[in-house]
Amino acid sequence: MDDKSLQVIDERVQTWLRTLDEMIPNLVKDMQLSTKQNRYDLVTNVDRTIQNDFESFLHEHCPQHQLLAEEKSNEDINPKRGHTWVMDPIDGTMNLVKQQEDYCIILAYFIDGQPMLSYIYDYPRQQLYHAKRGSGAYVNGKKLPTPPHIPLQEGILSFGAQFVNAETLNDLFEAAFSYRSIGACGLDSIRVIKGQFAAHFNTNPKPWDIAAQFLFAEELGLRMTTLDGEEIDFTKAGPFIISNSGCHQEVLDILNSKGGYI
Ligand code: IPD
Ligand code: CA
Ligand code: CA
């Protein structure tokens, strides 16, 4: 795809994302909650309406493009071929329900498996993070700098502590400067992207939790791998880390040396 066509898609998607500013307050005011696999696995009308609206947007503007998204069946698509969008309509649904804060929309565009455009929209803070292949990463149109080198002993580490075995957890707490977790994979990743956190890992993310992070990592010189240090298949996801290059190996060494994770 030439740069002009990519630019047109990028502008349209950014415009679509900003239409959420009108949509979300009304949906949140009349929030309807349901559970999926268990009482902590939540979905709301906000998630479903945003995803349906983006699906309609794609049908109208890019009818050949496929959508791999959390709140739909993805059986009929072949995400590694052609034009694929991956979407988490609300990442951090539990935060939305319990706090009405710290949630985001994750969206990423792949052509033949290569990430081309990425978005993480922190709607509550009105910050739209965006990356375009070969052009860098931006927040609200302002270019993001490459984060400085962060050694683990100087950095904040983020992960779901309940999924890490006791001995390993202790070693991670001792090695890092400190620990924080926002509870939305996209926003925890954004802190790494901005150089605020040294690393964020998730032991069981789905494709939509990490779809946008590939391009941000590539454009900003961050490491994004499985927890064994291998390349991640964006259609399958699984254990993942996004990390400053100053501590990637050290986090993985600790994670894989004793009890490890669940
Ligand atoms: C979840 C959040 C959470 C992470 C989970 C995800 P959801 O996404 O990103 O931080 O720990 O693995 O499933 O369900 O709110 O879209
Ligand atoms: Ca998610
Ligand atoms: Ca979600």
UniProtKB/TrEMBL annotation:
InterPro entries: Inositol_monophosphatase-like. CDD domains: IMPase_like (cd01637). It holds the Pfam family Inositol_P. PANTHER family: INOSITOL MONOPHOSPHATASE (PTHR20854), INOSITOL-1-MONOPHOSPHATASE-RELATED (PTHR20854:SF4). This is Inositol monophosphatase family protein. It comes from Staphylococcus marylandisciuri. The lineage of its organism: Bacteria, Bacillati, Bacillota, Bacilli, Bacillales.
